[in-house]
Amino acid sequence: MKRRYTHLLNREPTSILESMYQEALRESEARDQVRKQSVINLQAAVVLQGGYLDEVHQRMQGREQKEAGKKPGGKAVFKHEQAQKRKAEEKEERKLEKERHTKALERWKEACKARDERVKAQKERYRQALEEWEDERQLAKTERRRIGWQKPMLGAVEKKPGRPKKRAAQQADEDGSDGEEQEDESEMDVDYDD
């Protein structure tokens, strides 16, 4: 391996400090050489292991092919076909679930719009009743008498219906609970036709 700083190490030291520096440089060079050699050894080991793993992999593939040739359909092919079938079923199930969820979201949006209209009408009725009460109160003040009825209250405002969840999220929620409820939830529990 190529040594560095040979011009500095070949020079005759003129002082004790220079000789100490040269000695430190020699030690540093020796450490670098040891590190370089260990890196080379590690790289060689990686190359050898890679070759060995390739050889073992080829042997295992040969055995699998040999076993697959003995048995019609072989385990690997059977497992692959089963996995493909399972993936196709899961994909179809996800598609159906997405359609169900989309329909449920549409019903939910319609229910929210209807609820907003009802709340708007409730607030409008409240506003009108409040105006009538204010007019009556002003009249009662001018006539120096008490108003005959109480100030109207808005009352409880209808809450928004819960947003429908996807089936996977519902199943995760159920798994976290008791797990006793095993209902078919293909249709949403909330009726949005009201």
Oligomer: single chain
Using only C-alpha atoms, the radius of gyration works out to: 42 Å
- The number of helices is 4
Number of strands: 0
**Structural class of the secondary elements?**
mainly alpha
Could you give a short account of the major beta sheet?
Answer: none
The percentage of residues in β strands lies in: under 5%
Helix content: over 70%
* Mean pLDDT over the full residue set: 82
Biased composition (Basic and acidic residues): 60-70, 78-101, 115-146
Biased composition (Acidic residues): 172-194
Region (Disordered): 60-101, 115-194
Account of the protein in words:
Residues 60-70, 78-101, 115-146 have a biased composition (Basic and acidic residues). The chain is mainly alpha-helical and 194 residues long. The chain has a domain at 1-70. The protein is built from 4 helices and no strands. The longest helix has 68 residues, at 75-142. It is elongated.
Give a quick summary of the entry.
With 194 residues, the chain is mostly helical. It has helices at 6-10, 16-70, 75-142, 167-176.
Topology:
Layout: H1 6-10, H2 16-70, H3 75-142, H4 167-176
Biased composition (Basic and acidic residues): 60-70, 78-101, 115-146
Region (Disordered): 60-101, 115-194
Biased composition (Acidic residues): 172-194
